[in-house]
Fold this sequence. Notes:
By secondary structure, this protein is of the alpha/beta class.
Amino acid sequence: MIEIPQEKFQETLDKHPLLVLDFYSTECPPCEALAPKFEALSRLYGQDVHFIKMFRQGNRELAEKLGVRSSPTLLFYKDGQQVGEVLSGGIRRSDIMRNLDALLPEERVREIHSSIKPVVTQTEALVLGAGPGGLAAAIYLAQAKVDTIVVDPLLPGGQVSTTHQVSNYPGFIEPQPGYLLAHNMAEQAKVAGARMKVAVEVNQVDLAKKEVLIDGHETIRAKQILISTGASPRFLNVEGEKEFYGKGISYCATCDAKYFHDKEVVIIGGGNTAVEESEFISKFASKITMVQQLPHLTANKAAQERALSDPKIDLLFSHEPRGFYRRGEKMVVKVENLETKEMKELVTDGVFVFVGMKPNLDLITESLDKDEWGYLKVDADMRTSLPGVFAAGDVTSKQIRQITTAVSDGTIASIIMARELQ
Ligand SMILES: Cc1cc2nc3c(=O)[nH]c(=O)nc-3n(C[C@H](O)[C@H](O)[C@H](O)COP(=O)(O)OP(=O)(O)OC[C@H]3O[C@@H](n4cnc5c(N)ncnc54)[C@H](O)[C@@H]3O)c2cc1C
């Protein structure tokens, strides 16, 4: 792989029928996460595809001409024409391979894939999940000189990285943007010496053997594992929800509220998240209809009062959604009045669903002790029911799920893990 300046781009493109270009920046964690994958793939595909990289800030003119606005961005070329996907952000090895494979004949793709050698990486502690729980643990483990690897299918930060502002994490007088808090936690873990394997495909988790397979070929073998995989939004499982997921129905106000400037939205839910997120969405939307199955809100009193006094928010109590449809540009939410059984339609521009969370344990097949909602039961040392397997943060059974509580769990787990390893 070579680095070229923008002046050499056309000449390089003319010379190499198959080419991939990486626009990178310095002080860019997703670029750092991409670099070893890009390097390894350049060795695997290098005979067929020419791998080049370019410093985006130093070659702005070309970057802008090619429509590149963030780092890293990968562009693929065949016979001088840009083809395939434009990859940016937390780029996975499998994303790059899919686009490289599309450039080559099937036979050659098979040959390349069969030449991939399995790799085994040993470590003392393996942290599954780079949210606040996992990152706090990684900081403590690495500072205690425990060899630590952190694995996450996304870039580090967990739910914090998509939180607009965090005002209750101690140590900051002013509210902090969630992405910045997440970034600082991840950098602190790296500086302490934790190895980060992020934006990877997590294929298999074997807790009994303490092995995790990532990117289809790398087995990470550990002495102890910490599960800090957090929780994800629950789905309603009603008609149209899957179909319009991300195309009219959102589960993240921070990510999508900005698209509803001066528009009407329907919010499903009436708990803490629904009510708190409605305040944020209210900064953008012209009108909010909140659909709550109970005859009252269940959020904390202060949040309820703010929502009830917001002139933009209408509350529809004792109603449940029964289906989502599209009518032209509009979304239609069919709701049932639980008292009268009457159905009616709410016509809106977009829908936000906030009806609770579920633990991220899809890849964990071993039977661990769980509570009735599927969260992991742990003891005071954060041990699960399987020896050498700990859990921390939102994935565990508890009453309060916050950044501080996840960090606290991660701290306890990591100190106990470090003691046992030493
Ligand atoms: C919109 C919103 C706003 C919030 N605001 C606040 C706030 O202001 N203050 C506050 O204290 N709390 C807030 N919270 C709650 C807080 O973000 C969480 O309690 C906290 O992030 C939990 O940390 P965690 O490390 O347990 O899990 P998470 O933050 O969920 O991180 C889990 C990580 O595990 C990864 N993962 C998932 N599956 C796997 C797998 N199989 N293998 C490896 N990794 C995996 C995920 O990609 C993720 O990065 C908010 C939450 C939301 C959704």
